[in-house]
Sequence to fold (99 residues):
Amino acid sequence: MSIQTTQNSFRMEVLDVFRFGEGRTVFVGPVEGEQHIGPCDCALVVDGAARQEFRLEGEMITDTKHPKGYRSISTLTAIDLDTSELKGHRCVVRLLSAS
Fold:
């Protein structure tokens, strides 16, 4: 089994966010860059200002593709972002460093 990791820069415009009972937060949106996103350190940027740094667990691969090509990435870090903020603000997840 090989583990894929993020080697280059990526950027996701967050269009939706979900929280699951076990503490996982999932971001959904279009991704610029990487073919596959593995574990890495990221920043949440809201309206151009860095809000929070966190550890990304990686990309969630599903059996079906989103009709608009959106992808999903997840973290176990508590994220300070409410779904209502997505409507009036530009929210982006970007790579800080790959590991």
